[in-house]
Structure formats: structure tokens, C-alpha cells
From TrEMBL:
Coiled-coil spans in chain: 40-93
Entry-linked Pfam families: Seryl_tRNA_N (PF02403), tRNA-synt_2b (PF00587)
Gene Ontology MF annotations: serine-tRNA ligase activity
Domain Aminoacyl-transfer RNA synthetases class-II family profile: 143-411
Gene from which the chain derives: serS
PROSITE patterns documented for this protein: AA_TRNA_LIGASE_II (PS50862)
Entry keyword Cytoplasm: yes
Protein's name according to its UniProt entry: Serine--tRNA ligase
Keyword line: Aminoacyl-tRNA synthetase, ATP-binding, Coiled coil, Cytoplasm, Ligase, Nucleotide-binding, Protein biosynthesis
PANTHER family reported for this sequence: SERYL-TRNA SYNTHETASE
Organism field: Massilimicrobiota timonensis
Length: 425
């Protein structure tokens, strides 16, 4: 959510930002918000003036009564009585217009950074840099589900019976490998100075709407029937929500956290759920990183955060590249975002394994997360980044460490988490 002062002073700048995101069909929201804000502020001003007049007249009533000026006292009583009806109407208008204005403002996208490339969708994202040499071996690499199934590590048939499409059973050494990668990612981030956290896996609706747009909410979140609770799609949701309505001490910034959680996603959209494999599923596990910092430090942290993910994947012998997300591919709250993509030797192309975003103060405004220092009280900046998402990281790992004999090599950094195993086969 942007600062409404910007919309009041320069609504055209807000519209231009929306045009850069190719949201031409939503430009009317700026005009709606402008008029609602104007009407709301007029109601607030008039109500405030009436209350001041009422208080003044009420004081005079007592004074007139003491002085024996009953006629003047009665006249003031009549005026106060007339004001009560008008004040009631204005207060009702405040109650009506305030939430309406907030709802419209929450649909207006955040300002993107000047460095973001302009493009309509993810097909126009821009490659930044490659890390490691993408290798295609001279032997065939089967589909990841076939590799895992042959190693007795995947049962989609059973998960279909228990849960339906989009779920899976991981078993044996493959399940252990998935847990080992998450544990390694956790310790990797702790070594970077981040504080480890396990958050709630369900959050209330006011936290959900604080961390994402209404469109994202509808496409991603599972609601618990009969309760004001949602299953989290990523631990970023509850980690940012942790600071809701708080004033953080400026000297405590930056706050750097790394969190583990299962993630639940409806995955509504054109891509669909993968029937055989585990690339696009309803449930997975993730190690996340979240930073709260001063706004002027956000870009510095943004660059640090995605570089940590690159470093992690390279330590697992997985070539990766970074991809700058274009304007049309940015969710409404994001200022700037990049994807980390891993090399797939089977497909001979890269695929997304993580995403890093800075959201400016958009989430902080929605959730009331502020800090206080020498320059007064202001909203913090929030950032998030995928350290490792279990299923996609597992696919990348298996393909890039697959041997001709059907076994999977375990890099040295993972062996302590695998009981010393050097390969699975």
C-alpha cells in the first residue's frame, strides 16, 4: 500500500506506475481513491469543527445558568441539539468511507524501482548472470519422478488415495535427502548471522491481507472452514505478521530471520498441478529468509539475500542463474524482484527454484510495523527470499548429481546430514 500523500499530491505518477505494470484496466482505482479520500477528509474536518463548537457552547451553557441568563442557555442547548444530528451523520460517513478508502488503496500497486525492466509478463524477464557451468552429460537423465521412484523414494499413487492430485509421499533415502537439504540450508543461514525461527503455520485474515494482494490471496491461500485462519503459503507470511502493530527499536534494525515451515498452495492458474512429479504441488517445505530494515538499506540487503541463495546452490554442485523480474511480472506489493533458477540437464534449460523481493514499506503500512529513532517514527522496509524450497531444490539436486548407473552423488557439505553417505543407489 502506497503513502496516500503521494496519491493526493501526484495521482498521475501513481497512474504512470500502473501503466508500467500494464494495469490499464485498474487506473480508475486512483480516481476512486482520490475522491474517497477527499470526501473522507472533509467529513473528518467538519466533524472536528462541530465537536469544538459543541464543547464551546456546552461550556457557555453552564456559565449562562450561573449568571441567570436562562434564555441564552436555552438557545445554546437548542444549537447543541441540532449539532448532534449533523455530527451523527458525519460520524456515520467516517465509519463508511474509512474502510472503503482502505480497500481501494490496498488494490493500488506499490511503486516499482527505476531499475526494473518494463515488460508485460515473465516471458520478458531479463537474465542477469550465470553461476557455474551448465553441463549436459553424455548419458540420458530420466524424468525426476522416474529416478526417485526407481530408488523407492516416491509414492504418488498412495498420496492420490489419501489426498488427491498435487501431493506425494517421499520415503527412505530420498526423504532423508530432502530433510538433509533443509537442515543444511538452515545452518547455512545461521552461519550468515540470521536467527532461526519456526513460526505458526496458520495465520488470520488481517495478516494475510497485510502481506499480499487480494489476487494473490485468492490464488494461493487455503482457508480453514469456520475459522478466521489460513494455511500459510510461505513462512514469510507469519514472519512479517510477527511484527504486526509493533514499534521496533531502531537500534535493533536490521532484523534478520531465517524460518522453516511447510507451505500450502492452491496453485490456481494456467500452470496447473503436476500429475507425475513434484515440481508444482499443493504442499512442500521451505527455508526462508526475512529482513526488516531501514528503507535506505533495503537495496543493499536485497543484493545480499539473493546472493546467499546462489552461494547455497553452488555449494551443492548446482549451476544457477539470476533473472530480473520485469514490471508486469511483479506482484502488487513488490518494488523489485529477481528469481534464482537452477540448471536442468534433462530439459537443457533453467527453472525457478527461488525468488527474492524487496517490498519497500508496503507490508509495513498494511500491518502497522514502524520504528522510532532520531528522525521520528516511520515504517520499516521488508524483504524476503527463498533459501531452499524442498521439492524444486530436490529436483535440481537429483538431476545435477545423477550418475549413469542410476545413483545420486552426495556433495561433501551434505554428507554430515546423511549419516556420512556419499551416494544414494
Amino acid at each position: 500500500m502506497i503513502d496516500i500523500a503521494i496519491l493526493r499530491e501526484n495521482p498521475e505518477a501513481v497512474k504512470e506506475n500502473m501503466r508500467k505494470k500494464f494495469q490499464h484496466d485498474r487506473l480508475h482505482l486512483v480516481d476512486e481513491a482520490y475522491e474517497l479520500d477527499k470526501e473522507y477528509r472533509e467529513a473528518l474536518t467538519k466533524a472536528s469543527e462541530l465537536r469544538a463548537m459543541r464543547n464551546s457552547l456546552s461550556k457557555e451553557i453552564g456559565q449562562f445558568m450561573r449568571e441567570g441568563k436562562k434564555d441564552l442557555a436555552e438557545e445554546n442547548k437548542r444549537k447543541v441539539s441540532e449539532m448532534a444530528d449533523t455530527l451523527k451523520e458525519l460520524e456515520a460517513k467516517e465509519v463508511e468511507l474509512g474502510p472503503k478508502l482502505k480497500e481501494v488503496m490496498m488494490k493500488i500497486p506499490n511503486f516499482i524501482d527505476d531499475s526494473v525492466p518494463i515488460g508485460k509478463d515473465d516471458s520478458e524477464n531479463v537474465e542477469i548472470q550465470k553461476y557455474g557451468d551448465p553441463v549436459v552429460p553424455d548419458y540420458e537423465i530420466p524424468y525426476h519422478a522416474d529416478i526417485i521412484t526407481k530408488l523407492n523414494g516416491l509414492d504418488k499413487e498412495a498420496s492420490g488415495r489419501t489426498s488427491g492430485n498435487g501431493f506425494y509421499y517421499l520415503m527412505g533415502d530420498i526423504a532423508r535427502l530432502s530433510s538433509a537439504m533443509l537442515s543444511y540450508a538452515r545452518d547455512f543461514m545461521i552461519d550468515k548471522g540470521f536467527t532461526y525461527c519456526i513460526p505458526p503455520f496458520m495465520i488470520r485474515s488481517d495478516v494475510v491481507t497485510g502481506v499480499m494482494s487480494f489476487e494473490e490471496m485468492d490464488a494461493m491461500m487455503y482457508k480453514i472452514e469456520g475459522e478466521d485462519l489460513y494455511l500459510i503459503g510461505t513462512s514469510e507470511h507469519s514472519m512479517i505478521g510477527k511484527f504486526k502493530d509493533q514499534i521496533v527499536k531502531e537500534e535493533e534494525l536490521p532484523i534478520t530471520l531465517t524460518s522453516y515451515s511447510p507451505c500450502f498452495r492452491k496453485e490456481v492458474g494456467a500452470h496447473g498441478i503436476e500429475e507425475r512429479g513434484i515440481y508444482r504441488v499443493h504442499q512442500f517445505e521451505k527455508q526462508e529468509m526475512v529482513v526488516l530494515c531501514k528503507p535506505e538499506e533495503a537495496m543493499e540487503w536485497y543484493d545480499k539475500m539473493w546472493s546467499y541463495t546462489v552461494e547455497l546452490f553452488r555449494s551443492l554442485d548446482i549451476p544457477v542463474r539470476t533473472l530480473e523480474c520485469c514490471s508486469g511480472d511483479l506482484a502488487d506489493l513488490k518494488v523489485k524482484s529477481c528469481d534464482v533458477e537452477a540448471w536442468s540437464p534433462r530439459q537443457k534449460k533453467y527453472f525457478e527454484v527461488g525468488s527474492c523481493s524487496t517490498l519497500g514499506d508496503a507490508q509495513a503500512r498494511r500491518l502497522g510495523i514502524r520504528t522510532k529513532g532520531e528522525r521520528g517514527t516511520y515504517y520499516v522496509a521488508t524483504l524476503n527470499n527463498t533459501v531452499l524450497a524442498s521439492t524444486r531444490a530436490l529436483i535440481a539436486f537429483i538431476e545435477n548429481n545423477y550418475n549413469e548407473d542410476g545413483s545420486i552423488s552426495i556433495p561433501e557439505v551434505l554428507r554430515p546430514y546423511m549419516g556420512g553417505k556419499e551416494r544414494i543407489g
